[in-house]
Design brief:
With 585 residues, the chain is α/β, with parallel strands linked by helices. Helices cover 61% and strands 10% of the residues. The longest helix is centred in the middle third of the chain and has 53 residues, at 224-276.
């Protein structure tokens, strides 16, 4: 995405043009075809005027046969050239759009999850789809039409100049007014609408996304109307901006019609005067008049193009804002090769500070994950447990201390490679609107039925899946709404087990479950992780007597560490957490 990242004194639209460099030939052909099509239209009308005026003099058929053939050739050629112009300009636009969209998806993948905090989900989707689509106007309306107008306008003016110089001056002035001044007036009139259109689309997309994703909570708290009001307000703003843009477009069309009409009258009056004075014949009069009329086809689209380019500029700014967002983690230029198993992960004096924060979220963290060892990271909400997981997943870089994988700096590995060795369940795992089979295969696309069954059996899901009428092909609904909370968590656990990482991290796997389901899932996951390097992040102390070590976080620091029995007797933070959960042992 660096191509459309704003450079000092530059603009993202220039970056888009740089992306089209490999397609210079296609752009040139689009310009030439567009100029040829428009020029053919002007020549067609001028030739028709010659033909009609000359025919009125009742000449021999031979005298007008060339004009007859030329009319037919221009009629056919105009359509062919217009098709070629559309073909080449749209080909360039769509190929650049594909490159931008792919690059933006890759950028969003690098930003997720920590780097996306500054963007609302619906707004990100609008940037990825609507804003990228809007930039196509740069290639479809921003390059070929203006250059076509220059070439055709110059050609038409030259043709009239050869017949009647004063008329050529009037035509040149009219074309300049319609091709330069009118688009400037339109762009000025629609400046605010063009600048606000893309952000307003983003706000509407974010409002609709929030309304749909939060529909259950809105109903539960009686806030549906408030949510609808926010959506209506965003829609009303976008509608108002569309009206302003339409008004500006209408103004441009009207001004162009006025300028072309005045120019045509000027050319006609000068031609009639010259004809009356005997300096010009009736046939040349018809030619220059119809040439002046047809020449305005070249500039008719420019006011609308100015309006569309203003909106494309705003959209490109929003794309560049995503492209210019710093990655939350640094990627090494020459990453270490991923080590073979078994692996050891260690943190020493580790600290993490999120961008824009004055203090570290966690600091002085020491942690060892050796092969086959299970460690529990516990603490109250906000103690920094998930931040430690983010550092191990390489979703966040350390601000202090070291993180090592088999003795090498964790930051020296490619983040994607790290996540193949260290992975698991996030605090709120996403369940896709697909089948059970597809959700599991996300972790291993080529997994066979036997592997799927083994992972589901470890998560205690296999019996339930086999009891369903559709079995593995059962749809789970949007965000897994067709499943219970326990089933969603178990499906996420099965997905993590299917990935078979060297180190498994489970971040609050029993969150949002009732006590009975919490105890059952805890027992199952402890059984499933026996002999596997595991970091269990939780505030629930159920079953922690089975792990090898417990590390207690308090306000971003390690408060104490040891086994369950040691910490209960120590009388510290862990004992207070145990007492609060009704387990004073």
């Amino acid at each position: 995405m660096t191509a459309i990242t704003p450079a000092p004194g530059g603009h993202p639209l220039i970056g888009l043009l740089r992306l089209a460099r490999p397609m210079r030939r296609e752009l040139l052909l689009a310009v030439l075809a567009g100029a040829g099509a428009c020029g053919a239209g002007v020549a067609l009308l001028a030739t028709s005027g010659f033909l009609l005026a000359r025919a009125s003099q009742h000449p021999d058929i031979v005298a007008i046969s060339v004009a007859v053939v030329l009319v037919r050739a221009l009629s056919v050629g105009r359509g062919v050239l217009r098709y070629a112009e559309r073909l080449y300009s749209h080909d360039v636009a769509f190929r650049v759009l594909a490159d931008v969209r792919v690059a933006m998806c890759r950028k969003l993948e690098r930003l997720a999850p920590a780097g996306l905090a500054a963007f609302r989900s619906g707004d990100v989707l609008t940037r990825l789809i609507s804003d990228v689509d809007a930039t196509q106007d740069l290639f479809i309306r921003g390059i070929a039409p203006p250059l076509t107008a220059v070439l055709v306008g110059a050609g038409a003016t030259t043709a009239v100049l050869l017949i009647l110089a004063p008329a050529a001056g009037v035509l040149a002035a009219g074309l300049l007014a319609a091709g330069v001044l009118v688009p400037l007036v339109v762009a000025t009139a629609a400046r605010r609408a063009a600048r606000r259109a893309a952000p307003a689309r983003g706000e509407l997309g974010a409002a609709v996304t929030d309304l749909l994703n939060g529909s259950a909570e809105l109903h539960a708290f009686g806030a549906v109307e408030a949510g609808l009001d926010r959506t209506r307000a965003a829609d009303a703003e976008l509608t108002g901006l569309a009206r302003r843009s339409a008004a500006a477009s209408g103004l441009g069309a009207g001004l162009t019609a006025v300028v072309s009409g005045l120019t045509l009258w000027g050319v006609l009056l000068l031609g009639v005067a010259a004809t009356g004075a005997g300096h010009l014949g009736r046939v040349p009069l018809a030619v220059i008049t119809l040439t002046a009329l047809a020449a305005f086809e070249a500039v008719t689209a420019l006011p609308a193009a100015a309006l569309q380019l203003g909106q494309a500029r705003s959209a490109a700014d929003r794309i560049a804002a995503v492209a210019g967002t710093p990655d939350p983690v640094c990627r090494p230029d020459h990453p270490f090769p991923l080590p073979e198993r078994p692996v050891t992960v260690s943190l020493r004096g580790a600290g993490v500070r999120y961008r824009g924060q004055a203090t570290d979220a966690v600091r002085d963290i020491d942690l060892d994950l050796r092969p086959g060892r299970r460690v529990a990271l516990v603490g109250a909400t906000g103690a920094g447990k998930s931040t430690v997981a983010a550092a191990l997943f390489r979703f966040a870089d350390l601000s202090a201390g070291t993180a090592r994988l088999n003795g090498r700096d964790l930051a020296g590995y490619d983040p994607d490679d790290v996540r193949t060795a260290i992975t698991g369940c996030a605090a709120d795992p996403h369940i896709f609107d697909a089948t059970i089979r597809d959700n599991l295969r996300l972790a291993k696309p080529d997994a066979g039925d036997a592997e799927l069954a083994a992972a589901a059996d470890q998560a205690r899901l296999l019996g339930w899946i086999e009891s369903l009428p559709q079995g593995w092909d059962t749809p789970v609904g949007t965000h897994g709404t067709a499943l219970s909370g326990g089933q969603r968590q178990r499906l996420a656990l099965a997905r993590a087990l299917l990935a078979d990482p060297a180190v498994l991290i489970l971040d609050e796997p029993t969150a949002h479950l009732d006590p009975e389901n919490r105890r059952a899932l805890t027992a199952d996951l402890l059984a499933a992780t026996a002999g596997r390097s595991t970091l269990l992040i939780t505030h629930d102390l159920e079953g922690l007597d089975q792990v090898d070590e417990i590390v207690v976080l308090d306000r971003g620091q390690v408060a104490e560490r040891g086994t369950h029995s040691q910490l209960v007797r120590a009388g510290g933070v862990y004992q207070r957490l145990a007492e609060a959960q009704g387990d004073p042992r």
